[in-house]
Amino acid sequence: MDVTASMYAAQAIHGIAFGMVLFLIAAGLNVIFGMMGILNLAHGAFFMLAAYFCYSVVAVTGSFWAALLIAPVLTALVGVIVERFFIRKVQIMGAMGELILTLGIAMLILGGVKFFWGTENLPISVPPILEGMVHIGALDYPIYRIFMIALALVVLAVMTLLLYKTRLGKIVRAAVSDREMVNALGINVPLVFMFVFGIGVWMAGIGGVVIAPILTVFPGLADQVGMYAFIVVVTGGLGSLKGAFIVSIIFGLLSSFGIQFFSQLAPVLIVGFMAFVLAIKPHGLFGVKE
Amino acid sequence: MIDKMKRWLPWAALIIALAFVPKIFGIYYMNFFITFAVFAVFSVSLNLLLGYTGLLSFGHAMYFGAGGYGTALALKYIWNLPLLPALSIGILGAVLLALIVCPLVVRVGGTAFAMMHMAFAQLLYVIALKSRFITGGEDGLANFRIPPFSIPGVVSFPLEGAPANFYYFAIIVLGASLWLMWFFTKTPFGQIQVGIRDNAKRIDYLGFKVTHAKAVVYIMSAAFAGVAGSVYAMFQNVVAPDGYLGLLVSFTPIINTMLGGIASFFGPVWGTAIYALIEEIIFRYTDRVELVIGIIFVLVIMYAPLGFSGLMLKLKFKWLMFKNKRMRQAA
Amino acid sequence: MKFISKGFLIALCVFSLFFLQVFNPVAAVAQKGAKTAKPPAAHPKLAEANYAFDVNAMGDMSDFDPATVQFPKGDTIKVAVVASFTGPAAIVGKIYWAAVAWAAYDINQRGGIMVDGKKKFVEVIQADHMGRLDQCKKVAERMALQEKVHVLIGTDGSHLMKVINQVADKYKIIAQNITSTSDDLMDATNFSRYAFMSCLSSSQVGSGLGYFYGQIRKKEKRFYIICQDYAFGRSIADSFKKGLKQYYPQAKIVGEDYHKLFLTDFAPYLEKIKAAKPDVIFTGDWIPDGANLVKQARQMGLKQPFAHLFLDDPNFLHEIGPQAATGNIQITQYGVEGGAFKTPEQIKYYKTWHDLWANRWKTEPYNSRLFEHGSGNLGSYRQQAYWLFSVIERAGSTDPEKIIAVWENDTYRLPTGKVLRMRACDHKVVQDLHVFEYVPAAQQKVSMNIEPYYWYKDAASTGLTWRIPAEKVMPWMDKNLERCAGKDEWGE
Q1: What is the reported pLDDT for B246?
Q2: pLDDT > 50? residue C109
Q3: What CATH number corresponds to the domain at position B181?
């Protein structure tokens, strides 16, 4: 393909790659909200925590793949502890209690990260296997970003399978619809919710590990990406995985092509798109009224 | 007669104390108090929505910023603009913004309301950031002229370079705002707000238009947030996106309200005072700012969800019970 | 002819050989080459200095540790370092602290400074503005009103520096800007007699790099500009465009982009840059944006060198490896051409810091690579603090009026030999700048000319350095400022 076409193609792939990482984080957020009704304001912080865990695992074992395996699980563990000992206690207070609490947890994680890892920027490198580029005609594309897209798709596939094809998924969906009934059937509902929260955080963790080699790990990471994830979730509709997926892709492409054509207006485009959608559909594109 | 005096006495004492602050304390504490008053009014304005109407907004900074930027832009670009018009332009800016946003938000509640406001506040933040030639972008506007307080033909007090004068001006404006808001909550209209919070459907059945009522309180809340922003702009002599439209600016009144007590009018005022004290004392001696804030949030929401006022109420109740018990034991 | 004996011929050969050894034409050409490579001598107005930093007069620094240093209290000369000590930019505050505390500790070790008839010690206080406007004003006022400091030293972020200058002006104390490069800090709207900007300014960055590429390097022609979309990024980009126009009209700007602060994904921008095929990519970005930009650029196969001023964080340089940074060009206010160590004093000055770092400092972050050499911007901050103390000493007083009288038009010589001159009308510094190229360890000998002959073994660092004469990179002067009306670039 000729140069201009390959540039547009590259921009499109960039948009999709970025969108996919956003989706990983937003999906986790959505899973938690959709299943438990909690808007987890600490989600960005968990994402950042995973990136820091990734750094530590790489520092100890030297292997990015080990980090990919371990870091999200560690983060999920932290998430589960938070759910069990904190979130559960404030759920009776309704939305506001959860919002304030998760905000507090976000600050705690931010403070903790600075305490344990310091304030400097920590570097992580792309694993050697994934370095380098693919060449298709005039298109050069970094392998690592293709890996990002692939991984996100795999996670999405696994999640969907889990939710819709397994017994566990059925229980989770049932518990969301009618908690008391499921409880009456003898299933340990709090345990199910703990599990769901853990999965949501785990997905954010994967996002954090995956994006770490491209970025620098520093305490502002949560704000950088967390804000975008929220915008995606809110615009796509709280609780709608489909909405989050579509909006993530749109945002990624808007971001890419926005920069290509309207360079300086790009950030306005995204926030503007969100404000526009919310003005028409306050619950998001595919959202459900509470 | 004595009862009435008993009620008015603490207020009179407070007003006298406020009047003497500049004489007793230096500039630093005067300024500290002005900042406290600004954020107290800002937090109470948020509580009109939160505590009274049950609506949580994550973007109340929009109106604070509209007030601040409105006044700053007016003072910078309109030559020889007097003080009260400058203040009014700020408030007007906030009210206009509220009028525009109002129809979009009155139909929703809960999380949607909260997030929509976050979205709009972010949008305003990005616009302020990008419109470098008008708003000064990241750096904002600084060193604009602060006009003297003057009633033409009668009296004129300079405010620039006269910290005590500005203190009185700020206290009067902010005090009046607080009084107006308090008055509003005591009107039948204010009662409707509480009704909407508790059971909107029933209020609807009773024949009140819920969305209209919500709109009115929304605009009031925005207006007073604008007052706070406007006074703050004149106090700091600097407006910038981070200090007036950022996410932290939206979260601060929520923090203050939670700390102080969401269920009472003066709760946010207490909360602002507590938070200001924490900032002064704790932050001077530690680097771990986020940890401290996080711990406070978590502890407050888990163990004292009604904040400081709630705690006070509990203590008062316990004290009354204790007194009652003693009286009964004595009998 | 037969008279020219064999002996004579042999003597002639030997003599010729001797002649050639001493007056080798090749060597002579090389010498001449070196002579022309040597930049013209410093401008006459920067040839002499009122005060030269004397390494041999330094006090005993062997107990200095930035993490634990304590300063005397009481009747002292008080300076406050106003910066981010918490928040995402917390590392910045630590850097300033290390620099100012070093200089203050040295002064105290020498016995203090004689002011107003008494020998007083220096006390340095930390003031955390958390990166927030309201907090900055509050903390600056607290320093001025309650702690009664004599000098406010600040800070990154020109909007914050403006607030500090305002407070200094209001309460009549001195404000010293050691790092914010914004030219408008000293323009007609914002200037204050009490504020001094002892660091370089944005306008100089652009003209310096323009001069370098156009008049010294004369190779690359196509430039792409990518900066952060806010006041600093835009002013740096503007100044580079002006610099190219002035000193390198044949240059072509093939693209210009401004990205949002703290951007995560540079890929779309890098795609545009790729398509534009520049020779050099100019950026004003600082870490983390700068780090992400370069990292992602190399990952995407962009091999062009970057022209920048802030991409020198050693952690970042180690992470991307020597190849990725080799060829990058940096402009700096603390460089030196022809080897960093030409005199024993320069070696001593360097070693005093370096040995302490290597052997004594054990606390984060001071024991990290960031603080290893104490040069670059850190070196500049240390000397700016020394300059402040030298001015106070020569003023013999902490009275701001006396300090202003000494500082205006003052000249100060750094240990590197360069002279700084404080322009009286707008309190900006006139100075030579330096531009250097990043090279791998094997070639770092040309600047690190003492053991171990490299700055970093596993990362690219300073190689060849060029001097940009001060008269080519004058800081911008606001003609609307009354004090400067009708004056020339030197403020006269």
Answers
A1: 85
A2: yes
A3: 1.10.3470
Structure-model confidence comparison of residues C2 and A30, the more confident one: A30
Cβ within 8 Å, pair A256-C268: yes
User: Are the Cβ atoms of C90 and B243 closer than 8 angstroms?
Assistant: no
ipTM exceeds 0.85, yes or no: no
Domains and CATH numbers, chain A: 3-280 (1.10.3470)
The string of pLDDT tens digits covering residues C286-324 is: 877 888 899 889 888 899 999 998 888 888 888 888 888
Neighbours of chain C (3+ CB pairs under 8 A): A, B
Smallest CA-to-CA distance from A252 within A136, A155, A141, A145 is with A145
**Which two structure tokens, joined as six digits, stand for A169?**
């998924």
Write down the pTM of the prediction: 0.82
Tell me which H or E stretch contains A139: strand A139-142
Q: How far is C104 from chain A (nearest CA, A)?
A: 25
Burial of A186 (0-12, 13-18, 19+ CB in 10 A): exposed
Q: What are phi and psi of C85, to 5 degrees?
A: -105, -15
Nearest to C301 among A125, A133, A218 (CB): A133
Read off the pLDDT of residues A242-281 as tens digits, 9 standing for 90 and up: 888 888 898 888 888 888 887 777 777 777 888 788 778 7
Coil vs helix vs strand at C225: strand
Kindly tell me the sign of the dihedral angle through the C-alpha atoms of A54, A60, A65, A66. negative
Q: C425 vs chain B: nearest CA distance in angstroms? A: 21
Residue B231 within a domain? yes
Q: What percent of chain C has a predicted confidence (pLDDT) above 70?
A: 91
User: What is the residue whose two structure tokens read 């006390």?
Assistant: C123
- Contact list in B for residue C90 (CB cut-off 8 A) is 287
| For residue B286, pLDDT beyond 50 | yes
Q: Is residue B161, in this structure, part of any structural domain at all?
A: yes
Contacts of C185 in chain B (CB under 8 A): none
Q: Which residues of C touch B132 (CB under 8 A)?
A: 231, 234
Task: Report chain A residues whose CB lies below 8 A from the CB of C287.
Answer: 121, 216
In chain B, how many domains are there?
1
Question: Are A18 and C267 in contact, with CB atoms under 8 Å apart?
Answer: yes
DSSP string, A152-178: HHHHHHHHHHHHHHSHHHHHHHHHHH-
Distance spanning both ends of chain C, measured CA to CA: 72
Structural contact between residues A270 and A18, judged by C-beta atoms closer than 8 angstroms: no
Nearest to C378 by CA among C331, C432, C332, C430: C332
pLDDT tens-digit series, residues C327-343:
999 999 998 888 889 99
pLDDT in tens, B251-276: 889 888 888 888 788 889 999 998 88
Contact A39, A229 (CB under 8 A): no
Selected residue of A21, A120, A228 to mutate for chain C interface (largest C Cβ count, 10 A): A120
In this prediction, residue A102 carries a pLDDT of: 87
Note the Cα C40 to chain centre separation in Å: 21
B293 is in which domain, residue-wise?
Answer: 32-330
One DSSP character per residue, A229-289 reads HHHHHHHH-TT-HHHHHHHHHHHHHHHHHHHHHHGGGHHHHHHHHHHHHHHH-TT-TT---
Of B28, B161, B243, the CB nearest to C134: B243
Q: Which residues pair with B108 in a beta bridge?
A: none
Q: What is the residue-averaged pLDDT of chain B?
A: 84
**pLDDT at position A215 over 50:** yes
Q: Considering chain A, what is the average pLDDT of its residues?
A: 83
Residues of A in contact with C258 (CB under 8 A): 263-264
Could you tell me if residue B9 is inside a domain? no
Do residues C476 and C429 make contact, with C-beta atoms less than 8 angstroms apart? Answer: no
Q: Is the pLDDT of residue A147 over 70?
A: yes
Q: What is the structure's pLDDT at B189?
A: 79
pLDDT of C79: 96
Is B10 part of a structural domain of the chain?
A: no
